[in-house]
Design a protein that fits this description.
Strand content: 5-15%
Mean pLDDT: 84
Protein name: Phospholipid-transporting ATPase
Membrane topology: Multi-pass membrane protein
Keywords: ATP-binding, Magnesium, Membrane, Metal-binding, Nucleotide-binding, Translocase, Transmembrane, Transmembrane helix
Number of helices: 33
Catalytic activity: ATP + H2O + phospholipidSide 1 = ADP + phosphate + phospholipidSide 2
Largest sheet: 9 strands, mixed
Enzyme class: translocase
Length: 865
């Protein structure tokens, strides 16, 4: 009988053929305990440790520290580290995210006359375009502002010269409105007497500063009054004047305007209002539109220059009208009902009408440092960028040109509600019919864009989609949104203008749910919170609009340009490290677990373990855990400089190349192969071969300890082969784990047999003195690693992945050779259509086609002659 020691003639309940159900259940429980090591439970603990350490590295990266505000990057969660390396689409706010949100008063239109001669940043960018109205001479002389928030130059307005203007009375009312219609708080320096302002938004601060510099200084505010030092045109000097503050009708994203009701020293009741042109022009009185056409013309020019505009208007109130409003307004404010806000809004709307137009302001929000370069790198990495902004379409388009999101020659698909057709529809009395007609118009425009998209695919042309808020409302409806998304995904750039916070969140949700790719939203204000929460990853800019966005984000950075390093360096590293870490975990657990399974086959599934209980318990705790943590924290396929030099490397994460089922299966097969080599090599060399000096063969304790030694050596040396970037810590962890096994075997074996059981002095008396033990360990190690080494060598030599190509040229010292670098970049998965690199390539293609046409023309003339 071959398995006589199992005593089938005297079976226990575990092997009783008369009770197969009980035996099966008990054996199932035995197998569950034995093969439980195949389940990488310790993987969860190791991943959490690694992610926390990766987050600490992100927080301490000095390359993402912004000295001006003393703000480093701050990873507020460690759960999304690997997703930073898989971002396919970025949805970005504009103001405060791409731009500084540090507003400067640049220009204004008062009484139909444009004032301000400062050249804006967008105008400088536009001057490089072929159709620019700006010449080089007008661009060169650009003075830096000496006063923060005020970069206005015009001798007609400065130093009180405005009193000589034909429309001096309108200018007086305009500046008064700037100085009074706000919620800013003045702070007076007791030493210098200089007044500074704390405002809810940078725009508001810029307006108050502009009023001060033009002669209307706001210096004191109480609950009931606003005090100014005004320039008096009659006396030519400043006089103190107080305005009694009666009501403040606050700004919000739905109203897009704010108003105050004040009483001046002469007893006049004034409603002063400022807001977006989309809501202000429709509230003008028939006798208050004297400058409307000129003002609209100036606003269009300002928008082309990348400026943010607001309309200023006012009207005088009579006592009876105001008293009626105040009673209704106070009662509505004190209501406790679900529709309280709606009632207040209706009362306020009835007051804010029949206004008299004064003019418009234009403030500049400059691009942050490094934004064009960052967008260019992200585009080279194959990441799509969508901009969702509340600005006018013209402003957003020109900011797009300034930051290289748009370029000359790129076909623009514009879906706008500002067309003669839609304006006619808006005048219809039947609003439901008007909405249906506008929706049909939007659908037609989207379908027209799809036709252009199919044409551009054939001609390899880049398209940009630009859509305004009203059109976006219809585009996001259930029966249209799939059509809209299909068009948007096919475009190189997408800009959504006049977007409300809700629309930003809905667009983000649409992209995330329908495309199935990883989305990242980035913003700096409270109106971006919905967008940040909807996206897979929310990045908050710790700017000047408070901390709402940061508190709702997953990671906070101080400048948009840091996104380049966060994604292309930390994102790529984290994705690669965690992918390699998980694959290796499967490998090492299978390599260990399958030796138990093979031994069970050899022992007729008797339930006998091949190893000592403590050997099995400590495998994932001491002997293999630290090297894999070091892999997840320190390993780098290439350096940070190379990551930024070859942004396409990021596509390995977007396409999930390093964590595909094929790669996981490959590592699992490697684990099975290693375990088979270890088990069958050890069992066949020890089964009939004399192991001790006396000629005795090795018993089960020797077999178990020998196999375990081989497993520890193989999985740790496999780690050494897999690592691309060695540090002292990794050397200590890998070789230290192997040394720790021998130290443990000595210490554990020295204990009494009561504790050490089968390991009692097994190393000192049996293993160490036997040359065959050391020889088996060496041969098994070489045999087990040879298949992986052969595969890796062939794959890197003949079928290199993108990062391996870069490793080759780095090893050969060719990273600065343009020819080698271009060969690597030609493996681009996506054609680069956005950024200044794409703009340069497009201009080169254009110049090349012109030269070719010219040569054909010359050759044709020669032949003709």
């Amino acid at each position: 009988m071959k398995r006589w020691y199992l005593r089938p003639d005297d079976s226990t309940v575990y092997f009783d053929p008369n009770k197969p159900e009980v035996a099966a259940l008990l054996h199932f429980l035995t197998a569950l305990m034995l093969y439980g090591y195949l389940i990488p439970i310790s993987l969860y603990v190791s991943i959490e440790i690694v992610k926390v350490l990766q987050s600490i590295f992100i927080n301490q990266d000095v390359q993402m520290y912004y000295a001006e505000t003393d703000r480093p990057a701050h990873a507020r969660t460690s759960n999304l580290n690997e997703e930073l390396g898989q971002v396919d689409t970025i949805l970005s706010d504009k103001t405060g995210t791409l731009t500084c949100n540090s507003m400067e008063f640049i220009k204004c239109s008062i009484g139909g006359v444009a004032y301000g001669r400062t050249v804006t940043e967008v105008e400088r960018a536009l001057s490089k375009r072929k159709d620019s109205p700006f010449g080089p001479k007008s661009i060169n002389n650009v003075a830096k502002p000496s006063i923060k928030g005020f970069n206005f130059t015009d001798e007609r307005m400065m130093n009180g010269n405005w009193v000589r203007e034909p429309n001096a009375n309108v200018i007086h009312n305009f500046l008064t409105l700037l100085a009074v219609c706000h919620t800013a708080i003045p702070e007076v320096d007791e030493v210098t007497g200089k007044v500074s302002y704390e405002a809810e938004s940078p725009d508001e601060a810029a307006f108050v500063i502009a009023a001060r510099e033009l002669g209307f200084e706001f210096y004191e505010r109480t609950h009931t009054a606003i005090s100014l030092r005004e320039f008096d045109p009659r006396s030519g000097r400043k006089i103190e004047r107080s305005y009694k503050l009666l009501n403040v009708l606050e700004f919000n994203s739905a109203r897009k305007r704010m108003s105050v009701i004040v009483r001046d020293e002469e007893g006049k009741l004034l409603l002063l209002s400022k807001g977006a042109d989309s809501v202000m022009f429709e509230r003008l009185a028939s006798n208050g539109r004297e400058f409307e056409e000129k003002t609209k013309e100036h606003i269009s020019i300002y928008a082309d220059s990348g400026l943010r505009t607001l309309i200023l208007a006012y009207r005088e109130l009579n006592e009876e009208e105001y008293n009626q409003f105040n009673i209704e307004f106070t009662e509505a404010k004190n209501l406790v009902s679900a529709d309280q806000e709606q009632i207040v809004e209706e009362i306020v709307n009835n007051m804010e009408k029949d206004l008299i137009l004064l003019g418009a302001t234009a403030v500049e929000d400059k691009l942050q440092d490094g934004v064009p370069e960052c967008i260019d790198k992200l585009a080279q990495a194959g990441i799509k960028l969508w901009v969702l902004t509340g600005d006018k379409m013209e402003t957003a388009i020109n900011i797009g040109f300034a930051c290289s999101l748009l370029r000359q020659g790129m076909t623009q698909i514009i879906i706008s509600s500002d067309t003669p057709e839609t304006k006619t529809l808006e005048k219809m009395e039947d609003k439901s019919a008007a909405d249906a007609a506008m929706k049909a118009s939007v659908v037609r425009q989207i379908q027209g864009g799809k036709k252009l998209l199919s044409t551009s695919d054939e001609n390899s042309e880049a398209l940009a989609l630009i859509i305004d808020g009203k059109s976006l409302t219809h585009a996001l409806e259930d029966d249209v949104k799939d059509l809209f998304l299909e068009l948007a995904v096919g475009c190189a750039s997408v800009i959504c203008c006049r977007s409300s916070p809700k629309q930003k969140a809905l667009v983000t949700r649409l992209v995330k749910n329908k495309t199935g790719s990883t989305t990242l939203a980035i913003g700096d204000g409270a109106n971006d919170v919905g967008m940040l929460q909807e996206a897979d990853i929310g990045i908050g800019i710790s700017g000047v609009e408070g901390m709402q966005a940061v508190m709702s984000s997953d990671i906070a950075i101080a400048q948009f340009r840091f996104l380049e390093r966060l994604l292309l360096v930390h994102g790529h590293w984290c994705y690669r490290r965690i992918s390699s870490m998980i694959c290796y975990f499967f490998y090492k657990n299978i390599a260990f677990g399958f030796t138990l399974f093979f031994f069970e086959m050899y022992a007729s599934f008797s339930g006998q373990a091949a190893y000592n209980d403590w050997f099995m318990s400590l495998y994932n705790v001491f002997f293999t855990s630290l090297p894999v943590i070091a892999l997840g924290v320190f390993d780098q396929d290439v350096s940070s400089k190379i990551c930024l030099k070859f942004p396409l490397l990021y596509q390995e994460g977007v396409q999930n190349i390093l964590f595909s089922w094929k790669r996981i299966a490959g590592w699992m097969f490697n684990g099975v192969a290693s375990s088979a080599i270890i088990f069958f090599f050890c069992i066949n060399t020890l089964q009939h071969q004399a192991f001790r000096k006396g000629g005795e063969v090795g018993e089960m304790e020797v077999l178990g300890a020998t196999m375990y030694t081989c497993v520890v050596w193989v999985v740790n040396c496999q780690m050494a082969l897999s690592i691309s970037y060695f540090t002292y810590i990794q050397h200590i962890f890998i070789w230290g784990s192997i040394a720790l096994w021998y130290i443990f075997l000595l210490a554990y074996g020295a204990m009494t047999p009561t504790f050490s059981t089968t390991a009692y002095k097994v190393f000192i008396e049996a293993l160490a003195p036997a040359p065959s033990y050391w020889l088996i360990t060496l041969l098994v190690l070489v045999a087990a690693l040879l298949p992986y080494f052969t595969y890796a060598s062939i794959q890197m030599r003949f079928f290199p992945m993108f990062h391996q190509m870069i490793q080759w040229i780095r090893k050969d010292g060719q990273t600065n050779d343009p020819e080698y670098c271009n060969v690597v970049r030609q493996r681009s998965i996506r054609h680069n259509t956005v950024g200044f690199t794409a703009r340069l390539e497009a201009s080169k293609r254009f110049e090349g086609s012109r030269r070719m046409e010219a040569s054909f023309h010359i050759e044709g003339r020669a032949v003709y002659q």
